[in-house]
């Protein structure tokens, strides 16, 4: 099950942070069709956001066709986003974790890592917001 984290200092609204985290969990294979999302009450308790914020995020995910709300049962994953074998994804994640450790040893901060990633993606023709 996904455990939500909300960065109040970040510029992204809390509901979009929740949406992003669900999408990331779907891409990484941590959530799969049929899995139940945490209840609104649980998310409010662990992340400290307002219940309306959680509901807004869940509605956004439902509108995107990724989850479905079942009356009295909760919100369940309806569709996945991951297209890569979970084992391959785990191997790539481990390699990236090693790279980040090397970057930290070299003195890079989050902004430096982000800048490098954006440059490499741009060189590949990928645009990120």
Automatic annotation (TrEMBL):
InterPro entries with a match to the protein in the record: Tscrpt_reg_HTH_GntR (IPR000524), WH-like_DNA-bd_sf (IPR036388), WH_DNA-bd_sf (IPR036390)
Pfam families named among the record's database cross-references: GntR (PF00392)
Q: Which CDD domains match?
A: WHTH_GntR
Q: What is the protein's given name?
A: GntR family transcriptional regulator
Q: Which residues form the HTH gntR-type domain?
A: 12-80
Q: What domain of life? A: Bacteria
Matching entries from SMART domains are given as: HTH_GNTR
Keyword list (alphabetical) reads: DNA-binding, Transcription, Transcription regulation
């Amino acid at each position: 099950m996904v455990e939500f984290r909300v960065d109040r200092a970040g510029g992204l609204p809390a509901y979009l942070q929740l949406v992003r985290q669900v999408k990331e969990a779907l891409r990484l294979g941590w959530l799969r069709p049929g899995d139940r999302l945490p209840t609104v009450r649980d998310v409010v308790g662990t992340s400290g956001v307002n219940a309306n914020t959680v509901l807004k995020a869940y509605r956004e995910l439902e509108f995107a066709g990724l989850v479905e709300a079942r009356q009295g049962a909760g919100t369940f994953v309806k569709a996945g986003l991951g297209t890569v074998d979970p084992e391959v994804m785990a191997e790539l994640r481990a390699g990236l974790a090693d790279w980040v450790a090397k970057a930290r040893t070299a003195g890079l901060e989050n902004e430096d890592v982000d800048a490098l990633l954006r440059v490499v993606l741009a060189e590949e023709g990928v645009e990120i917001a």
